[in-house]
Amino acid sequence: QVQLVESGGGLVQPGGSLRLSCVGSGFTFSIPDMAWYRQAPGKEREWVASITGSGITTAYVDSVKGRFTISRDNAKNTVYLQMNNLKPDDTAVYYCAALAFWGQGTQVTVSS
Hints:
The chain is mainly β. It contains no helices and eleven strands. The strands form two sheets. Strands 2, 4, 5, 6, 9, 10 and 11 form a seven-stranded mixed β-sheet that branches. It has a four-stranded antiparallel β-sheet with strand order 1-3-8-7, with no helix packed on it. A hairpin with a 2-residue loop joins strand 9 and strand 10 (101-102). The protein is globular and about 40 Å long.
């Protein structure tokens, strides 16, 4: 069955960086687009970034453009989200998604 397992979350100060990872299994990893979403307390889940199967094309929500980078290593069945210059508003549970499946999420907290 399809499984997506996120890691890499944590507590970071404003201006800091984190790299999230999502390992996929149970499907041909190199084919589908993959995406990162986030959900802050009391808010709806929000799309953050997407990447095509080849890794050539990416897209971002405006609030993270220039700060976050999505990438993938199909040989490792892993998609990444590099997050730089983090802000308190980036605090959320971050989810990996593919083929209508979701991971369990990883908490990112940006606070001084």
